[in-house]
Description:
The protein is an alpha/beta fold. The chain has helices spanning 11-25, 40-49, 66-78, 97-107, 125-141, and strands at 2-5, 31-34, 52-56, 59-60, 63-64, 84-91, 111-112, 117-120. α4 (97-107) links the parallel β6 and β7 (111-112). The two termini are 13 Å apart.
Amino acid sequence: ALVVYDTMWHSTEMMAEAIVESLVQEGVDAKPYHLRQWDRSDIMTEVLDAGAVIVGSPTLNNCLFPTVSDFLCYMKGLKPINKIGAAFGSYGWSGEAPKLIAQELEEAKFKLVDPGLKVQYIPDKVGLEACRELGKRIAAELPKG
């Protein structure tokens, strides 16, 4: 499983780390990919082999963070098949990013595990637990092998 994300003030990054931690605890080989620290082509190579792709973005001006939008556009063009997906993100005011990611994943024919997890401001204990629960649900959907 891959957790692909970008972050503005580390809140979405905290969510990504909690999801990865949960997946690993469930026995899933899970890797985080911060979009500004990895080349998108390298991430895409991993996407093609992954069973699940979980995408996170902060909401910026009622939209996706630009690097996340770019990644989703690039991924859709490559048409990965048989993938489980989920969306997550942090927000201050409006919180559209997870819904927008979920729409993109649905259009790419991903099987969504969740309609989109969003946490306002900095994730607290409850928000981080929701991230861990998302990781558990994703792990349960992956084929055992």
